[in-house]
Design goal:
elongated, Spore Coat Polysaccharide Biosynthesis Protein SpsA, Chain A, alpha/beta, about 10% strand, binds manganese (II) ion, about 55% helix, binds guanosine-5'-diphosphate-alpha-D-mannose
């Protein structure tokens, strides 16, 4: 049976944690078709939170004969570190197949754990407890201003990250498959681990790795006991991080454009050199193209896609051949579009047409091929499947 571990940070949650453990163990876990365990991550609470968890752990272990409540203490400050230490412990010490992020204060009502785990058991890699889809909600008693901040904050992050598929990017209620998603993330390198905003980076990385992401409705409740640790500073740093991550995505496109421009210069310079040398036409026109392809391949490999750099003679050669194949595709696109243009507008418009063909057809085509096929920064199950078929 799959083991799902709820990682629950609790910092001075004495009034909540005892009841939370009771509800989870007695009411919720028995309904779920997975091996459920709870790992509480304490941040040196001074109100007895730790002692309550230790006591509960003993009590429920002896009554069920199976240890299902664990406690660790975080060594570095901040919510992000609480989760990182919790995930590490859940994976390496407790052999979790999936981990859940959940608050201790009942704002994530325990009855929503089951639908999340069910979605995972049906094959989801990443489940997002969402307040902004049908069936989900924020507390009715929240003031309109607070609702607006939450809603527009989310919308803002969706805009800067260009993510319109997911509706709730700041939720604290999520489930992540370990294999292929969590184990691909360098947790200790996440941004802002000392803050709540680490959540945006974790989401960003998880979405990249997850092949199947689903949103599960969450009715976010109000906090009734103890105090929230969230504040406007946390909010600002969340927006800031979203902007940084958003720009990082676009940075790749800027680098890609720069490399393409250098490729164009290589092309033009060698055409000139070979012309001066008096080379035959076929050489003067073809060699520069291939040289620009070489330049594009090398610069994209070491710069634009440096995190995915292809290394090793054999791999480089085979990728380079593939790269030539995709470049051939660009040639076909330009030729076909050019001929259609000639027919529609006449040859007199070629110089006007060319930039349009490049900007609207060739560049998007190349960018797509590089990301999806050559350096594989975008994951498409269908493409992976076809490539597997082709060997
Ligand atoms: N161990 C540990 N260390 N726990 C912490 C820390 C910390 O530094 N900071 C907060 N917690 C625990 C709290 O005890 C609680 O269980 C949970 O983390 C969430 O903290 P709250 O203080 O209740 O945060 P919130 O309700 O304002 O924020 C919620 O909504 C945000 C926006 O939607 C959380 O779900 C956030 O994750 C979410 O981003
Ligand atoms: Mn809360």
């Amino acid at each position: 049976m799959d083991k799902v571990i709820i990682v629950m940070p609790a910092w001075n949650e004495a009034e909540n944690i005892r009841e939370m453990i009771k509800v989870l163990i007695n009411d919720e876990f028995p309904k779920i078709e997975a091996n459920m365990e709870l790992l509480v991550v304490d941040n040196h609470s001074t109100d007895g939170t730790k002692e309550i968890v230790e006591e509960a752990s003993k009590k429920y272990t002896s009554s069920t004969g199976h240890k299902n409540i664990y406690l660790i203490e975080q060594d570095k400050p901040g919510l992000g570190w609480a989760y990182v230490r919790g995930f590490q412990y859940a994976v390496s010490k407790l052999n979790a197949n999936a981990v859940m992020e959940m608050d201790a204060d009942f704002q994530h009502p325990p009855r929503f754990v089951k639908p999340m785990v069910d979605a995972y058991l049906k094959g989801a890699d990443y489940c997002i407890g969402s307040r902004y889809i049908k069936g989900g909600s924020v507390p009715k008693e929240w003031a309109e201003s607070r609702k607006a901040v939450s809603f527009f904050g989310n919308l803002f992050i969706r805009l800067v990250l260009l993510n319109f598929k997911i509706h709730d990017l700041t939720t604290g209620f999520r489930l992540t498959r370990v294999k292929g998603v969590l184990d691909k993330i360098d947790l200790e390198k996440l941004h802002d681990l000392d803050r709540f905003s680490y959540k945006v980076d974790l989401l960003y990385q998880s979405l990249k790795n997850s092949k199947k992401t689903v949103e599960v409705p969450l009715e976010f409740a109000s906090r009734t006991k103890e105090k929230s640790k969230f504040n406007w500073k946390e909010m600002i740093s969340t927006f800031k991080l979203a902007i940084i991550l958003g720009i990082k995505d676009k940075q790749r496109f800027i680098k890609f454009g720069t490399v393409g421009f250098i490729g164009y210069l290589v092309n033009a310079i060698f055409l000139r050199i070979l012309t001066v040398l008096g080379s035959p036409s076929i050489i003067a026109w073809s060699v520069p193209v291939e040289l620009s392809i070489v330049s594009n391949f090398i610069l994209n490999n070491i710069w634009t896609f440096k995190e995915k750099k292809i290394e090793g003679t054999k791999a480089v050669i085979s990728k380079f051949l593939q790269f030539n194949g995709t470049s051939l595709g660009a040639l076909v696109i330009q030729t076909v579009a050019g001929i259609i243009g000639d027919v529609l507008f006449g040859v007199g418009y070629r110089q006007i047409l060319l930039p349009f063909i490049i900007v609207f057809l060739v560049l998007p085509y190349n960018y797509f091929m590089y990301n999806a096929i050559i350096w594989k920064t975008w994951k498409f199950p269908a493409i992976a499947w076809i490539q597997k078929l082709l060997g």
